[in-house]
Amino acid sequence: MKTDRELQRDVMDELAFDPSVSAENIGVSVKDSIVVLSGTVPSYVEKTAAEKATFRVAGVKGVAEEIEVRVPSMNQRSDQEIAKAAADAMEWNATVPSTVTISVEKGKIILRGAVEWEYQRSAASLAVRYLKGVTGIVNHINVQNHPEPRDIKEKIEKALLRTAAEEAKNINVKIMGGKVTLTGKVHSHAEIEDAKYAAWAVPGVDSVETNLSIIIA
Hints:
By secondary structure, this protein is an alpha/beta fold. The protein folds into three domains: 4-69, Histidine-containing Protein, Chain: A (2-Layer Sandwich); 73-143, Histidine-containing Protein, Chain: A (2-Layer Sandwich); 149-214, Histidine-containing Protein, Chain: A (2-Layer Sandwich), CATH 3.30.1340.30. Helices cover 37% and strands 28% of the residues. It is built from seven helices and twelve strands. It has helices at 4-17, 44-55, 79-91, 118-128, 149-163, 165-168, 189-200; strands at residues 26-31, 34-41, 62-65, 68-69, 101-105, 108-112, 114-115, 136-139, 142-143, 171-176, 179-186, 207-214. α5 (149-163) packs across α7. It is flat, with a radius of gyration of 19 Å.
C-alpha cells in the first residue's frame, strides 16, 4: 500500500505526464489516500482532465477537486456568447433532446430539463464542455422513466455479471423507486464507473448513488 507521500508524488507525475493538463499551476495534497487538487487552470476541459488523470493513479480512493478556472483574456466570452454557442452545440448533437435548456452565469453553464436516459444527460454536458470561456458546468437534468423497481434490480445485477462477473459478487444493489444505491468494494475507480454505467443503462433509473469503496492492496 502506498504512503500518502508516494501517492502525492505519483499524482504529480501523472498530471505532468498528461499533455492536456497545465500541471505547473496545480497543487496536490494527500491524506488517507484522498487527493485534494487545488490551484488554477485556463479552461474547464483541463479541470476535468486533471481529475481524470488523478483517478488513473493506483491507490487513489477519492478526489476533492478545488481547482479554479481562470480563462485567459483571449478566450473570454460573454455569458450571452457562451449561451448561444452552447445552444448551437446541443442543437447539432443528435443525442441531446430538445427538452434540455441552458442558462449561463459568469461563464458557468447550467443545464436543466428532463430526458429518458442517463446517456442523454451526460451527452448534454459533453456537448458544451469544450466551448471557450466556460468556467464550469452544473447538470440539473432529470432522468425520468419508472418501471417496476424489482425489474430494475434484476436487470442491473445481470448487467454487472455480464461486464465483470468477479467484481459483481462484491457489489450490492438496493432500489427505492427509481433510485439505485450501489454498495460494496471494488479494485479501482474504473470499476466504480463501470458499475454506475451498468445501473444508468437500465430503464427506470432516475438516480444512482455509489457507496463503493476501493480495495487498496
